[in-house]
Each structure stands twice: as C-alpha cells, then as structure tokens.
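Take the subject:
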Amino acid sequence: MNSKNKAWSEKLISRLDREFKHRWVIYDELLLSFLSKEKVWIDIGCGNNVSVADRGSAAKLSLGIDCLMPNIEMKDLFVVGSIGALPIKAESADLVTLRFVVEHLKNVEEDFAEVSRILKPGGHLIVMTTNTWSPFILLPRILPYRLKNRLLRVLYKAKESDIFPTYHRFNSVRKMKILGGSFRLDKYLYVQDVNDVRKWIFIVFFFWHLFTKPKLLQVFRTNIFAIFVKE
C-alpha cells in the first residue's frame, strides 16, 4: 500500500464525507457485534487467516479454513479444507463468515448446505461479496478471464496467486432472498469499496460512493454485506 496515497485519500474523505467507513472497518464492526466468549466462529476461505489472528480472541473458539496453508504461523487456529467438505462437526458453530468466497462458488446450493450443516440452529452466517449490479463488477465479467486477470494485476497491483475464477451465481440480493434451505436473509447492506493503490482509481470509486448515497442508488455499489440466520 502506498502510504502517501493513503494519507491523501483519507484527507479527501475527511473533507467530503466524514461518515464514510472503509469496508474492512464495517466488516470488523459487524463481526465483533456477533462474537462473544460463548461463541464458536468459523472463517471459511480465510486466506492468510489474518481476521482470526486479529479478532479471534473475542470468541470462545475461532478457526480459519482454506484450501491452502496460510503464510503466517497460525496452525493451531487453522485447518485445511474446502467449503464443499468442511472438516467440522455438525451444528458446532455459532457464526460462519464468508469473505469474498461466494463469487467463486460453482455449486451454491450444495456448498451452502454444507455451511448449514456445521451451524447451530439460530446461528448466523455473514457474507461479504461483490455485487453484480455494480458497473464496476458487471463490466469486467464480460471480459475474457486472461484479460481480466491482467487488468487486475496492472490496475490494482494484485498478485496472480490471489486471483481466482469467478462465477457470480449468488451475487445479488434477489438471489440471496431466494436461497432457500435452512437459511433466511435477515439483513443486508450495500457498501462502496474504495482503493488507494492509484489516485485516479480512488477518485472514481469514492465519487461513486458519493453519487450512490441515495438509498435507491445504493444497489449499484460494489459490495454486499449480508447476514443470514439458520432457522
């Protein structure tokens, strides 16, 4: 991250919208509102398991699951596994989180059935994902995967190892409402991402945030935060 860009972007935010919150701040606040010393939290698709490292102490037990080992030494709080076959006992979790996972799912119903299996009745699932109604998500979807991969690496300085195929079979509130099974969509929030890796990208995204502040336009923001309850 460019520290000069970050300082510049935060200064602009403070001038134009002091109520603005970055998506990771919103996520952390939401996560902590569901954690307590009586809760078991499972973070599926945890990547380097940073979220569990930073926030896991707020729960009785916190565990990250991913198909690849994290780069940091957190083996006692991490297991290798996939969402389609979770190495977790049935009805053992109070909270499950999926951060930027569902856009990569081919078999949505089967994978959510597996998530439901490990959740206790009344447990919660927090989904943080991309929104297919956003032009910043919709337009890149029509590009060939190799071209999109290259653009992400050039524009956002993303590592190729961090870019995975996306299917977007669950990336609208309408689809979330008709998920079915044991899950009920309880709440959702549209959030506009900003990125300060390049100044012009930040300006485009932040002014899109300002443009979409009216409730009717928020459906065009880049991200969805959704909370589901297992009934």
Remarks:
- The chain has a mean pLDDT of 90.
